Task: inverse folding
């Protein structure tokens, strides 16, 4: 069974950092595009970052570029999102997802499989 499980969310003060992890099972993450998305209450799900696992190239939304960094460990079948300089507007449920299409696009309908999400709250 294909499964993605996100961990690492929590409560952090503005300016703080968190690292989210996405564990993949039921498939190996080679040759996919894996993305991180987030959804705040009352808002649409939006793309945060994506990575093509065959070469490690990344793409970021304008709102997080320079603060967030995505990486993968193919040996562990894991993908990570390092989030620095967090702001209250980063508060959301964060999801990882993958698609077999090797494109660095943050288009929600492109992604075929999704995790259950992890809550990130940035508040003082």
Result:
């Amino acid at each position: 069974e294909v499964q993605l499980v996100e961990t690492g969310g929590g409560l952090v003060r503005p300016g703080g950092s968190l690292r989210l992890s996405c564990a993949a099972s039921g498939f190996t993450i080679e040759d996919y595009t894996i993305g991180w998305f987030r959804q705040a209450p009352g808002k649409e799900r939006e793309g945060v970052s994506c990575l093509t696992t065959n070469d490690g190239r990344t793409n970021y939304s304008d709102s997080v570029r320079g603060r967030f960094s995505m990486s993968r460990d193919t040996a562990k079948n894991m993908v990570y999102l390092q989030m620095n300089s967090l702001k209250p507007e980063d508060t959301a449920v964060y999801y990882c997802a993958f698609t077999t299409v090797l494109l660095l696009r943050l288009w929600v309908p492109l992604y075929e499989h999704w995790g259950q999400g992890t809550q990130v709250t940035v508040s003082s």
About this structure: The first strand starts at residue 3 and ends at 7. The chain has no helices and eleven strands. The chain has a mean pLDDT of 96. The radius of gyration is 13 Å.
